[in-house]
Design goal:
By secondary structure, this protein is an all-beta fold. 0% of the residues lie in helices and 52% in strands. The protein is globular, with a radius of gyration of 13 Å. It starts with a strand and ends with a strand.
Length: 118
């Protein structure tokens, strides 16, 4: 599966933004999906995950209550709705896919920049 992330941009602190990730192919429904982010000088970290059904999600403490991950299998798309954004949310956001039964996220999108101004 190939992933294409888009929707990043510049937003003021306290604002909202939604990033999306479109997957190619018809096997999207068999992949768990995740959003990672990487700030300058920091490691890439997982911030939100959703299982193949869309029923089970998980969040890093840093975004819990502010970010929502969702997926639309009919559109081969996973979303990350980001509310109450903070300057420390500034990073490149990546989507990733994990095939059911595999050991990790083997497919990555190219990343989209999110910048939150104070």
């Amino acid at each position: 599966v190939q992933l294409q992330a888009y929707g990043g941009g510049l937003v003021q602190a306290g604002g909202s933004l939604r990033v999306s990730c479109v997957a190619s192919g018809r096997a999207f429904r068999w992949y768990s999906m995740a959003w990672f982010r990487q700030a300058p000088g920091k490691e890439r970290t997982s911030i939100a995950t959703v299982d193949w059904t869309g029923d089970s999600t998980g969040y890093a403490d840093s975004v819990k209550g502010r970010f929502t991950i969702s997926r639309d299998n009919a559109k081969n798309t996973v979303y990350l709705q980001m509310n109450s954004l903070k300057p420390e949310d500034t990073a490149v956001y990546y989507c990733a896919a994990q095939r059911l039964g595999s050991g990790g996220y083997g497919h990555w999108g190219q990343g989209t920049q999110v910048t939150v101004s104070s």
